Amino acid sequence: MSILPIYTFDHPILRKRLKLVEEITDDLVGLALDMHATMKNAEGIGLAANQVGQDVAMTVIDVGHIKGNEGMTPLTLINPVIEAFSDEEVADEEGCLSLPDLRADVLRPVGVQVRFYDLEMKEHVMEAEKLLARVMQHEIDHLNGVYFIDHLKPMRRALMKRRLQEISRGEIEAEYPLYRAGS
Ligand code: ZN
Fold it and tell me: Does residue 97 contact residue 5 with C-beta atoms inside 8 Å?
C-alpha cells in the first residue's frame, strides 16, 4: 500500500464528473487500498478518487474513529448514487483534504439512501444519517466535480477567496503529502 499525494483546489480533475467503473480490476482494488491508507494517514474520514488524481467513480469512507460512530466499518463505494434525501436539513462544519485549513458550516439533508457497488461488484442500498450521511454527500459531490464550498452562500465563499488563491497557487503546507501541479 502507498500513501498517495492529495490533489488540491483547483486542479481540473477535481471539477470532473468521474468515469463510472465497468469492471473490477486488480488496479482498482490496489487503488482502493491506497486510498484507505492515504485517508488514514491524513486523518480524513472520506476520500474520493479524483483527490488522488484518478478518474474513476470510487470513494472511501471511514468514520469509525469518530465519537458516536465507533464500530462503523470502513466503506469503499463504487459508482455511488444518492437515491433519496430526508426532508430535514442541518448545518454542520465540514473540511476537505483538498482544501487544507478551510472549514465552514454546510447545510445538508440529515439522512440519505445510497446505492453503490463494492469491490466484488456486489450492489448495496444503504441508509445513513448524521455524520455518515454528511460524509457520503460530501464524497459523492467530489465524484461529480463539486466541492463543499460550492454549497455556501456567495458572501461566505467570498471570505475564503484569499485562502483559495493560496491553495491554488500551492502556497500551503499540510500534515500529509500534497500533489503540486508542475512538480
Ligand atoms: Zn473533500
Answer: no
